[in-house]
Amino acid sequence: MTAVGEPAGAVDVALRDGSTVRVRPVVAGDYDQLRALLGSLSPESRWLRFFSAGVDLDTMARRAASRGSGRGYGVVATVGAPERIVGHAAYVVTAPGKAEVAFEVSEERHGQGIGTLLLAHLAAVAPSEGIQRFVATVHPSNSRMAQVFRNSGFPVELAVGPGLLEFELPASLDAGAIAAFEDRDRAAAVAAVGHMLRPSSVALIGASRREGTVGTALLSNLLAAGFTGPLRVVNPKAGKIAGIQAYPAIADVPGPIDLAVIAVPAQAVPSIARECADAGVRALVVLSSGFAEVGADGARLQAELLDACRTGGMRLVGPNCLGVLNTAPDVSLNATFAPVVPRRGRIALASQSGAFGITAIAEAARRGLGLSSFVSTGDKADLSGNDFLRYWEQDADTDVILLYLESFGNPRRFGRIARTVARTKPIVAVKSGRSAAGARAAASHTGGLLAASDVTVDALFAHAGVIRTETVAEQLDTAALLAAQPLPRGNRVAIVTNAGGPGIAAADACTAAGLAVEPLSERCRRRLPDHAALGNPIDMIASASAEDFQRTIEQVAEDPDVDAVIAIFIPPLITRAADVAAAIRAASERAAASGTPLLAVFMAVSDAERAELSADGAIPVYGTPEEAVRALGHVGRYADWHREGPDEPPVFADVDGDLVAGILADALGAGGAGWLDPADVERVLAAYGIALIESRTAHSAAEAGRQAADLGGLVAIKAVAPGLVHKADAGAVALELHGKSAVVRAAQAMTRDVAAAGHAVEGFIVQRMAPPGVELIVGIVGDPDFGPVVACGAGGHAVELLGDVAVRLAPLGPRDAKAMLRSLRTYPLLDGYRGAEPADVAAVEDVLLRVSALAAAHPEIAELDCNPLRVGPAGALVLDARIRVAAPPPLRPFPALDR
């Protein structure tokens, strides 16, 4: 979408009721529409707006239509096709840095938040025109306008004058205003999704008598589910379908329609969408394929469909989707053509893929898992997973949220929303595409480490507390545990089994998943059955009865040193699986009372038997120990994230952000983009308190020798050559040099070697040799979608070869930095490996946090390498650093529909 502030820019904005308006700058051709808007105001509204009921509306409309940069700026809110202006706002410059702001909103649109939204769009433009403050003069009786300012989220100052109130507020979106708009966005998303999942009435457009069609399957599912509201069918060629009166067009359907489900050929969909808008339909689900997924022609058709929805104020799921369903008894909606009907439950599922959705519904049904609601988002032309997350956050029927994602519309927005939702309801996601998600032009070591992978998705999910699984089976395994059992307090697992081999397999899987299988306490062992092996796993041997399982599980679950219990059963000759299942369910009451999650593994039984054993959903049942442990590992990591709470980034009082901003602005102004020279790199790092080894620059071999002599002792020299990333490979690094002549000879040889590698040497960096230590890499890559990505890993010459890297999204909190370092395979090198003195790990964490703060504050940094960062017992020093700058991607318009 076009950003606010561009002359032809237009964005679509969601209102509190879930409908939409379009916001764009005023143009000269708006005079007639603005005159109509002013003329439609009641005498009271006109008087409150202009302090006069007899104002010259022609003059006011001309002024409103002529706002331009320099003296003022105006925006309008429009609906319909052709568009109709329903709101107008403008500011006029009254003094340096200050402008007066005013609004008009049509009478029927009062209370929808249009005035506040227009204020936000003015605030998005004002700073670029030197406006710092807005002022509004309001009549004391104009409570409606006063409320706009009070509810805006902007910090408002009020002055009382003779017969007037003067509001003053900052002309920019601060944190409070953004938070207020996020609240409005949440309310708008809940309202919009409500029309999809809790419609008061439904029309099916494309119902058919022909077997095997989507329309037939849809109608069959709608009827079988027993939708509780009016159900209408539209077919111009049928009188009745399945005993239901069919109407020729949506305009002929009696009564209001909340949701229209469309299953007709793609070419007909945009015109039908416009008919729906004219009929007052609130929401559309378009199942038809043949849109953006098929290429350019389909994309144009999709744009027409979306335009019809936007101008009509409707919200859209799809196109090219499976549909929506809601199992709540007061709704009973199944507007999908899925062949399997899920049972009612407390798990919500959003799938971008219809095929994946069908698979997930079928697999959930096979396992006895129930769904609260389901949506297939398809091509995501409008509503996306972000909107459904907002809805399910407040949905009393949903405890766990499942997502299948093929792409992100706005990853940063997803991260913000998911992080909030995951604090109250766990989110389990399958994100397809672990192979190269797109070519990233990587000119640095950090970029090379992150290219051709989706580690940024892992970082996004880790930041937001989203559980990532690889398959639908793993996703449902995890959801079954989350839906039925409490979160574990820690990572200590007790394994109860009637067979030794599966118990050992479970213990091995726990170790791989970061779970601990520790010896039981003496108190716990005394209370176990006499014939049980008292280690952990607890092997009760093949003759163990159902009562043995129940008693053992109850005793172990109450042990304060046990955080979760896995019960494994293989049917012997005598004990029946059904009896053991009943015993485990009985034991679960004691386990739940102690807050200990309980998982059951029934091996060597059929899928049908396993589904029957788990039919009540009280205990998650798995087919193998590995499946149970994998689910518990996912849930345990989520529990840790949930328990720890927010990890706020530190605020550094000693950084000089203004200095860095100036360096970056100069660099962009001089060359547009590229690598900073070494002196500027040093200044940037120093401004953020990041220590760089003492260095000198030299323009010739002779000068390098003189600088080395001045430094004294052992030195290193490095060539400065544009475009040269891997210096050591090109012979551009020489170490452990002593004396002026040695440095001169090395610099001369370096010049020849680098030239042979295709680069021209522009100078040299002479550095004092650093004390010995462990070499790491710390870097930044500015991802246009995810924002700045911070990487930390094993550094030095073999950085890409080792590929030992941890990644997070900026800004980092202290726990992020600590976890990144400790997740490295090479972390033991920092922690006193083989008797070495431990390195100053706290110094590395500090560097990570400062680099993160630098990345978050300065999106102009496209890539940064600190490689190597040498760490020893006395601290951490950057030995080599590079920074590439580039104009950051334009900010997405806010507030706007930007999914």
Features:
899 residues; alpha/beta; Aminopeptidase; Dna Ligase, domain 1; 28 helices; 38 strands; disordered N terminus
CATH homologous superfamily (4th level) name of one domain: Gcn5-related N-acetyltransferase (GNAT)
Under CATH at level 1, the class of one domain stands as: Alpha Beta
Q: Radius of gyration, rounded?
A: 32 Å
Largest sheet: 8 strands, mixed
Tally of alpha and pi helices: 28
CATH topology of one domain: Aminopeptidase
Mean pLDDT: 88
What is the general shape? Answer: flat
Estimated structural class: alpha/beta
- Poorly predicted ranges (pLDDT <50, ≥5 residues)? 1-8, 435-443
What is the helical fraction, as a range of percent? 25-40%
The CATH architecture term of one domain is 3-Layer(aba) Sandwich
Proportion of residues in β-strands: 15-25%
Termini Cα gap: 11 Å
Strand order of the largest sheet: 1-2-3-4-5-6-8-7
Please report the total strand number as a whole number: 38
Organism: Solirubrobacter ginsenosidimutans
Pfam family, one: Ligase_CoA_2
Protein name: GNAT family N-acetyltransferase
GO molecular function: acetate-CoA ligase (ADP-forming) activity; acyltransferase activity, transferring groups other than amino-acyl groups; ATP binding
Structure write-up:
It is a single chain. By secondary structure, the chain is of the alpha/beta class. Among the domains are: 11-172, Aminopeptidase (3-Layer(aba) Sandwich), CATH 3.40.630; 489-644, Rossmann fold (3-Layer(aba) Sandwich), CATH 3.40.50.261; 694-769, Dna Ligase, domain 1 (2-Layer Sandwich), CATH 3.30.1490.20. 37% of the residues lie in helices and 23% in strands. The protein is flat.
